Amino acid sequence: MAKRKRHEGQLVTRLRFGILGLSPGNGHPYSWSAIFNGYDPLAMASCPYPVIPTYLARQRFPDDAITDASVTHIWTQDRAVSEHIAAASRIPEIVDAPHDMIGAVDGILLARDDADHHYAMAAPFLDAGLPIYIDKPIAFSLAEAQRLFARQSRPGQIFTCSALAYAHEFRPTPETLAALGRLRFVEASTIKDWDQYAIHVLEPLHTLLSGEGAIVSLRAGGKSVRHLDIVWQSGVQGRVTALGGAHGMIGIRLFGDLGWREMIFSDTFAAFHAALRHFTDIVLGRQPPQDPSSVFEIVRMIEAGRTVT
């Protein structure tokens, strides 16, 4: 299925990906496709998400593209939108139905972030054995996440994440962490709603606090501004807040015995690129498949944050 090309005398696989779906407020079909294919500046200028052409213009293409894969097929719920994305992100094929991609691509990028639709949209591709990147969050409940993974034809088909799990801003060095002393409290906040955006800080926190043991307590509160209080086995406490309609940033603050550190997310392109790079490497066999247990732990936190007692 994958195209092959010569590179410095070696045969290199060039994967074909299909991008699928569209949800309100989500410009990922434009940006993800451009990270592989490059983009047409004139067509991208009328992208309904102005931040995308802004950060793409700061990159150098093709140098900054992922060159061992390309997005070759697209389907969204609106043909006119598909045509615009295809023109902007140089996608050669627009299909009439999602299943038309089966047999024509090596993997699927499910770019909808409305998790209620993920199972129905992913199922045909899971049944066909295709690897699939499912946009965050994969599900709003642990039971639904487990149902999706159970639908796999083989282990390792599903990859899912918040790209901010790969953000360099949220990956302090061991020396930086050591300078804080013993960690006591973590505080994280994100703009917009809990369901779609809390994962942007929950997943990086899960990585940062992997040495603090299991989560022993989850308690949600708030209404338009939703928060989740978390206690880890080591005794570290934390609060994650989704700001709803309030202005703010996506950031994490770490407080220790010897100091504190604030980390604010800013580089969208780099985070998306790193996440898509990882998925591509999994499909190519360069990286092991994702561990579902980590996915389930993050979904458990998302579900807890939706339940205010």
- CATH 4th-level superfamily of the largest domain: NAD(P)-binding Rossmann-like Domain
Tally of separate helices: 11
| Residue runs with pLDDT of under 50 for 5 or more positions | 4-12
By CATH, the architecture of the largest domain is named 3-Layer(aba) Sandwich
Q: Using the CA coordinates, give the radius of gyration.
A: 20 Å
Helix-and-strand structural type: alpha/beta
- How many DSSP-defined strands? 13
On the 0 to 100 scale, the average pLDDT is 94
Which percent band covers the strand fraction? 15-25%
Order of helices and strands: EEHHHEHEEHEHEHEHHEEEEEHH
How far from one another are the termini?
51 Å
Helix content: 25-40%
CA-based shape:
globular
CATH fold topology of the largest domain: Rossmann fold
Main β sheet profile: 7 strands, mixed
Number of domains: 2
CATH class of the largest domain: Alpha Beta
